[in-house]
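so my prof wants the structure for this chain in the tokens format not the other one, which i didnt know existed until like an hour ago. anyway here's the sequence
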Amino acid sequence: MASVTHLHLAPLHKADLTEVTKVVAVEGKGLEGDRYLGTTRNVTVVAEGELDEAADRLGYPIPAGATRRNITVDADRLPRTTGTLIHLGDAILSVWRDCPPCERMYQTVGPRAREALEGRAGIAAQVVKGGVIRVGDPVRIGPSPGDM
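here's what i got, hopefully its the right format
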């Protein structure tokens, strides 16, 4: 079973990320203390497997937090289907959309990063059930909208 490996918050847009061991997800709003709190893009999540694929293309590792995503999980891939549920600790997220890499990836990851991360930079999600998420918490994906 996958688990949460890293948690990052940034209080403002373009602010440095702070790695934390737990976060509070607020239903319909996002993560307490994060720049996305109250926006449609409540939370961002990335899978280590997708980062490893991008790192293989680049020829250098991508450290946790370099993609500026809030939550890193040790899954191979994340679902991109809108509405798919992701259970993390006490919270439940709903996939909103793919989170494409931005120009900032050249600064935070390195040369050719944006191209290597295309389709691998994680997802944006919305908090449908609030709760505490901790490093080490299990991650369960599903059901998808078509399964309900």
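also thought this was worth mentioning. The mean pLDDT is 92.
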